[in-house]
Amino acid sequence: MQLIPFIGHWPTYILLAFYDLLIGNYLRMVVVILLSIGLSGLDMYLRPKISGKYADIHPLIFLLGFICGPLLLGLLGFIIGSLVLGVAYAAVLTFKKEREE
Prior knowledge:
The chain is an all-alpha fold. It has one domain (10-100). 84% of the residues lie in helices and 0% in strands. It has four helices and no strands. The protein is elongated. 11% of the residues are buried.
């Protein structure tokens, strides 16, 4: 489910939490909900932040690539979405520098 754009891992977590609700395991339901919120936050924040830090490109560009890549190119976009935006950004910066000189 993670590879489906905008759906991601939420259906799995929702089904697990609903199952725990039905069987009466409320503690595990709360843990599943908290972990799902925490993991999605890490996935949406840390991955672009770390990638942008090592590539010297603004993290918002990587975040845009991670979100829009799968929407435009499907599974392949999930893999190369941020790469394409990073290369395009670097090309635009190089063009601007050469034009100023």
